[in-house]
Amino acid sequence: MLTLSEAWRLIASADSDLVMIVTLSLRVSLTATLVASALAIPAGAAVAIWSFPGRRVIVIVATSLMALPPVVVGLMVYLLLSRSGPLGDLGLLFTPGAMIIAQSVLIFPIVMALTREAILPLEREYRLLIRSVDAGPGLRMATLVWDARFAVTTAILAGFGRAIAEVGAVIIVGGNINGVTRIMTTTIALETSKGNLELALALGIILISIAFLVNALTHGILHLGQKYQVSR
Length: 232
Hints:
Blueprint: H1 2-12, H2 16-49, H3 55-65, H4 70-81, H5 96-132, H6 137-147, H7 149-164, H8 168-174, H9 184-194, H10 197-231
């Protein structure tokens, strides 16, 4: 009971260490979500709209990678960014940049696969209409992504939810360095092992709150999307 009270005190007093950890976590995960989404949404739309050799393979790979183990991603990124790796000269290992790259790799297949699932039925529905107005590839993609914006937004939220709760990949490439790469999930693991349950519990409460917020936003956006479809 005292541990829980102390955890709430840390949150209510906006403890400096707590704020720094939460801020870095949000900055890393939001940046990774934006980077991954900027690449994954066009990729998912392209796979849904156009037929080309290897399309089915790409779909299978993207769907399979949705369950990609985070530690494997962390290892891959570590090998790329290490001094002996091809990107070692960038000096990104054990920095927030490395964590953003790792989370982006994890998020990309999720957003891509869910975007494809959202656009595929719309492409079938609008195929003849789009061809009749001779829309170019860019306009065709933009139109379908916009019409599927509610489902695409939930895909982005799903990616963010995966990123903010991730621990395996970021601890490998970030090193969990105090004041530099220590985020909520890695701090919870570390402080629990040290017996500092107050800080770990405070971060756990915040992380759960973020998860509930993301879930509420997802349901709200899906509800708006259903109302929009009915009103059309």
